[in-house]
Amino acid sequence: MANFNLKINGKTQQLEVDPTTPILWVLRDHLKLVGTKYGCGISQCGACTIHLGDNAVRSCQLPVSSVGNQEITTIEGLSEHGDHPVQQAWLEEDVYQCGYCQAGQIMNASAFLKKNPNPTDEEIEGAMNGNICRCGTYIRIKKAIKTAANSKTV
Amino acid sequence: MTKIVTHYNRRSFIKVSAAAGGGMLIGFSWLNGCKSNTTEPEVGVAVPKEWFEINGYIKIGDTGMVTIYSPNPEIGQNVRTSMPMIVAEELDVPWENVVVEQAPLNTGWYQNQFAGGSLSIRLSWNALRMAGATGRRMLMEAAAKEWELKVSDLTASEGVIKEINGERTVTYGEIASKAVGIEVPKEVELKGIKDFKLIGTSIKNVDGKKIVTGEPLFGLDFHRDGMQLAMIQHPPAFGMTVKDFNEAEIKSMPGVKDAFIVDTTVEEPGGFDEKGFKQLIAIVGESTWQLMQAKKALKANWETTGELESSDMHVKRLEKALVSGEVLESRRDGNPEAAFKKAAKIIERTYSAPFIAHNTLEPMNFFANVTEDSAELIGPTQTPEALEGSVAKLLNLPLENVTVNMTRIGGGFGRRLYVHFGVEAAAISKKIGGPVKLIYSREDDMTQGTYRPTYRSVYKAGLDENNNLIAFTVKGAGLPEGPVFPNRFPAGAVENYSAEKIKAPTNVTTGAWRAPRSNFTAGAEQAFLDEVAEAAGKDPIDFRLELFDRAIKDPVGEKHEYEPERYAGVLKLVKEKANWGAPKPNVHRGVAAYFCHSTYVAEVFDMIMKNGQPIVEKVWCAVDCGIVVNRDAAKNMIQGGVIDGIGHSMYSQLTFENGAPKQMNFDKYQLIRHSQAPKEIEVFFVENEIDPTGLGEPGLPPAIGALANALYKATGQRHYHQPFVTEKQVVG
Ligand code: FES
Ligand code: FES
User: Which CATH fold topology does B325-356+451-726 show?
Assistant: First the structure.
């Protein structure tokens, strides 16, 4: 057990936890931020994607001890009112089916668009390939990413 | 005008009372089979136990806001949006004034919920229309009474009642409280299909905002203060059971509260009690990560009690079954053997597919709180009644002391029809004497069983010298159930026909997987017909249309389970939309059509080769699912089905060695990803006035046939064995 001060969604959270615990379980079990999902635990599905600083990372493989001072953003903190351009685009395209993968998809897409505001289809596929959607909403996800890119406010 | 009864015998499907806070509350049986113009249930349809149970509510508040409380959990088929649309249509209120609410947990309001599925719209269509129409009628009667007029002197539309020959108007909200005293009419008139304003449009998912903001909707997200977490370890192979494990060591690990073996055997198991393993090691603690570490430290003694099967063994069993296995169902028209003797050309091909897992992205999980005399369960299930029954049996509790509430479901595909994970949570809760949430790891989930069976079918066709199809036979074997529907197409369209469905044993557990059996049969049959059409020198669509023509004009044999006109209808529609027959350079086309879950779907695939890899550029789908309720959501379902069909037939498989699946997580088990999905899928619906049918499943099966046929055009090789990607011509 060790003490950590984590910066999550703009707030500092203090907790005592096994230092090997991945951020995914710190969020879900210890902080009750369950928007970040568990799908595989081995960096294969992307359901657990969060932002570490400006980068999209897999929280299932990110030990709490490795985070240090870096700012963590989860789906709950992506925008104050659920109106981040990527979230709005998702609503606009009515993307989801079961919805389970979508927090991870949105977190990955929003980090990607920040770095590449005008992506080609191939760049989108490359960036998003690590995020599985078992329901097969891929075409809508891609469309929503383009809608968000065109909204110019990313 | 269609009329619909609101009563069955003397009992009403509808209850009306005053709503708390003002207005009118209409309670009704969301899921029932009441039919228009009849007081009897449809012949052959068992009257569900919940026939008279009130489990859906419409609240018409005095502000005019209408709240529809839906008992249906959402599994991804958008029923929480499309079903309330049906109510709102008949009630005739603007959608902006409608709020859809899920049953609040533990209120006791809702019983016998039933999850979405291709069946749910079919079952609920009449009930939902009746409830909405009854509300509208009662509001009109209340207004008529107020104004001392007849109902026929009024109109009701968009939440407002108007006098036809006068100036007076009243909103639903203003009159709702007065409608409470009106007697429920014995029968009500439904809208004409042509008058629909909402049904057939595209309404956005009512839970969209919650999904994109990460609200706790799913079973895995459920939390109650004081609850423990639990994980299980099942034996590593089918044919093994647990003897003992290093209990003391595990219990002393950090964060572990308890560890023990649970037995979830129930007497007289029901149809949804299927499960891989009945005795499991359970570990209980406070954090998932610590439980995962404890699982890694497990040293268990497993006992081999059955055969440890391998994939080689499975293939041999299927081959043997095709020669001498037990036939479960069959059909025979004419004399195929004699016809083959006369045939100018004979084509015979074997198709196969492996076991596959459901792999819902949300792994199995359930919350349970078992006390001395009650059990409360909350989580993602499609069959709450089956779970209730199973838990009651396991814990020896009266049924009424077991309650099940449902959360949003992170993918079903048939997996959450089976109740074992809820039963396991109950067994663990009983042992520790407190609330617990059971969580499966991905590996637990993928290796537990309940798989889509592995299949192998042999198709044979005979053409005469004029290239007419004179004989067609199919033999299909599966572990444990064969993938043949003897009375489906091309039954009825070929003079000499036989079909045999054959079973073979396995101790790997299997279950319903999105479009059961059709998910294999469609691909095999439609790829085979493509090859037969080619041998006959005919266009694949024309060849099929000729067969449907035969089934329409002069059907062979007793009965067949499809309407050839509707089948041909979707093929013609897709032919037109895809501009079939106009060649495009470097684009390779495949077509297929299939009928299942009362819905007809035809698909055309355009494939290109890019760096030696086949890529599906574009897909056209023509769908006949009767009346389309929520257009864009319906498209979403079909698109998902197509992508699922491509994904599983192209990439996914479970292989076995010593009784254990070799793929345990997404590193080895390949699911389709962004870059492998088609670039575009267009969906067209046949416009008709037939009651709506399933949409969750029928998009998938024909995709496999269209894919196989496009692959042939692109690579020059036929593909017979799934997953296609392992057939070297694709990889190379
Ligand atoms: S849970 Fe982290 S990538 Fe799947
Ligand atoms: S919407 Fe169900 S997994 Fe993506």
Answer: Aldehyde Oxidoreductase; domain 4 (3.30.365)
Q: Which CATH class is domain A2-76?
A: alpha beta
d(CA B579, CA B439): 50
Q: How far is CA B576 from the centre of its chain?
A: 29
CA pair distance B483, B456, nearest whole angstrom: 8
3-class DSSP state of A7: strand
Write the CB contacts of B57 (distance below 8 Å, at least 6 apart in sequence): B25, B26, B27, B28, B67, B68, B69, B109
Which ligand ends up closest to the CA of B412? 2
Q: How far is CA A103 from CA A35, A143, B25, B406, B635, in A?
A: 7, 16, 36, 21, 22
Identify whether the C-beta of residue A43 lies closer than 8 Å to the C-beta of residue A56: no
CA B640 to chain centre: 12
**Coil, strand, or helix at residue B547?**
helix
The answer to whether the CB of B65 falls within 8 A of the CB of B93 is no
**What crossing angle do the helices spanning B118-147 and B79-91 adopt, rounded to 10°?**
30
Task: Show the tokens assigned to B323.
Answer: 């020669």
Report, as ranges of residue numbers, the positions in chain B whose pLDDT lies below 50: 32-52, 104-118, 728-732
Helix (H/G/I), strand (E/B), else coil: A117: coil
Q: What is the pLDDT along chain A (154 residues), one digit of tens a residue?
A: 999 999 999 999 999 999 999 999 999 999 999 999 999 999 999 999 999 999 999 999 999 999 999 999 999 999 999 999 999 999 999 999 999 999 999 999 999 999 999 999 999 999 999 999 999 999 999 999 999 999 866 5
b/e code B539-562 from CB counts within 10 Å (16+ = b): bbbebbbbbbebbeeeebbeebeb
**Of B441, B642, B679, which is closest to A41 when you measure between CB atoms?**
B441
Query: For residues B503 and B483, what is the distance between their CA atoms, to the nearest angstrom?
Result: 9
pLDDT of residue B303: 97
Q: Fold identical between B2-212 and B325-356+451-726?
A: yes
* Chain B residue closest in CA terms to A85: B212
Residues of chain B found within 8 Å of residue A130, distances taken between Cβ atoms: 673
B2-212: which CATH topology? Aldehyde Oxidoreductase; domain 4 (3.30.365)
CA–CA gap between residue B617 and residue B614 (Å, rounded): 9
φ/ψ of residue B357, rounded to 5: -95, 160
Question: Residue B218: its chain A contacts at CB < 8 A?
Answer: 37, 100
**Angle (CA) B209 A76 A42, round 5°:** 105
Architecture of domain B219-306+364-439: 2-Layer Sandwich (3.30)
Alpha helices in B554-614 (DSSP H): 564-577
Task: Give the position of tokens 């196989």.
Answer: B708
The CATH topology of domain A85-150 is DNA polymerase; domain 1 (1.10.150)
Give Dmax over CA atoms of chain B in angstroms. Answer: 85
Domain spans, chain A: 2-76, 85-150
Per 3-state DSSP, chain A is made up of helix, strand and coil in percentages (nearest 5) of: 40, 20, 45
What is the DSSP secondary structure assignment for residue B455, as one 8-state letter? E
Q: Cα(B7)–Cα(B184) distance, rounded to whole angstroms?
A: 10
Nearest residue of chain A to residue B642 (CA atoms): A136
Mutation target among A40, A48, A62 for the B interface, most CBs of B within 10 A? A40
Matching residue, tokens 């036989």:
B498
**Is the C-beta atom of A134 inside 6 A of ligand 2?**
yes
Interface with chain B: mutation pick from A50, A100, A108, A140, highest number of B CBs within 10 Å: A100
Cβ proximity of A34 and B362 under 8 Å? no
Domain residues of chain B, as ranges? 2-212, 219-306+364-439, 325-356+451-726
Q: In this predicted complex, what is the ipTM?
A: 0.98
Instruction: Output the DSSP codes for B327-392.
Output: EEEEEEES-HHHHHHH-SEEEEEEEEE-BB----SS--EEEEEE-SS-EEEEE--S-HHHHHHHHH
